[in-house]
Amino acid sequence: MIRFDSVTMTYPRTARPALADVDVEIVKGEFVFLVGPSGSGKSTFLRLVLKEEKATKGQVFVAGRDVGRLSSWKVPALRRQIGVVFQDFRLLPNKTVEQNVAFALEVIGKPRATVKRVVPEVLDLVGLDGKAGRMPDELSGGEQQRVAIARAFVNRPTILLADEPTGNLDPATSVGIMRLLDRINRTGTTVVMATHDDDIVDQMRKRVVELDEGRVVRDQSRGVYGYSR
Ligand SMILES: Nc1ncnc2c1ncn2[C@@H]1O[C@H](COP(=O)(O)OP(=O)(O)OP(=O)(O)O)[C@@H](O)[C@H]1O
C-alpha cells in the first residue's frame, strides 16, 4: 500500500537529509506507528506519502503508483485515497460538526443525497451522534479530534495518516481516540500514525518503525515505544 525504496529527502538550504535511505513497506490493512525524536523525519515521511514533498532520491509508491512520477493533475485523486488527521484538529471554526464533515465530500463533488446519507453514518461511527449541530468551540478536545477523524474517514480512504493525533489530549481521551483509530483500521484501512505517546504505543502493540536523524533504526512487529524521550 505504501512503499519507500531507498528514499532520501533533503529540504532546500539544509545540510542534513530529513530522511536518509529509507526502505519501508506497509501492506494493506496494517497499523504502523512512526516514532523517533523531534526532527527525526516522521512528518516528512507522511508528507512524502501525500506528495506534499518529493523524494530527492529513491521512490515512494502509494497504492501501486510511483508518486514521484505522478503528474500534478493526478495528485488530487491520490489525496482522495488518503485521510489525514493532525494534532491540532484543523476544523473549520465557523461550521458545525456536520458541516465540517459534509464539506470534505462537497469539495470532491459528491451528490447532495450521498452527503446527507453518509455524514450521519460516520458521526455515529466516531461516537458523535447528537452533536451534529455543535460548533467546534463547543466541543472538548477529544470530541474535536473525533470530528477531524470523521472528516478524514467519511470518504472511506484506503489510507489514514495521523500526525500526533493524541498530542493535545489527556491520557484517558487519547485511549478513546486510539480505540477509534483501531476500529477504522479493522475496516481494512491502512493506518500510519506518527507519535510521541509512549503509553499509547506500548498499549497497542502494533508495528513500530523508529526513525533517528532520518534513518530507520528499528522496524518491529507488535513493538513498543522503546526509547526515552
Ligand atoms: N520545511 C522545511 N524546511 C527545511 N527543513 C525542514 C522543513 N521541515 C522539516 N525540516 C527538517 O527536517 C527534519 C525532519 O523534520 P520532521 O518535521 O519530519 O521531523 P519529525 O520527526 O516529524 O519531528 P516532530 O516530532 O518534532 O514533529 C528536521 O531536521 C527539520 O528541521
UniProtKB/TrEMBL annotation:
SUPFAM superfamilies the UniProt entry points to: P-loop containing nucleoside triphosphate hydrolases
InterPro entries the UniProt entry points to: AAA+_ATPase (IPR003593), ABC_transporter-like_ATP-bd (IPR003439), ABC_transporter-like_CS (IPR017871), ABC_transpr_LolD-like (IPR015854), Cell_div_FtsE (IPR005286), P-loop_NTPase (IPR027417)
One Gene Ontology CC term in the entry: plasma membrane
Keyword field: ATP-binding, Cell cycle, Cell division, Cell membrane, Membrane, Nucleotide-binding
Pfam families: ABC_tran (PF00005)
Entries under SMART domains matching the protein: AAA (SM00382)
Domain of life: Bacteria
Location of this chain's protein in the cell: Cell membrane
Membrane topology qualifier: Peripheral membrane protein
MF (Gene Ontology): ATP binding; ATP hydrolysis activity; transmembrane transporter activity
Assembly and binders: Homodimer. Forms a membrane-associated complex with FtsX.
Function: Part of the ABC transporter FtsEX involved in cellular division. Has ATPase activity.
Protein family membership: Belongs to the ABC transporter superfamily.
Protein name: Cell division ATP-binding protein FtsE
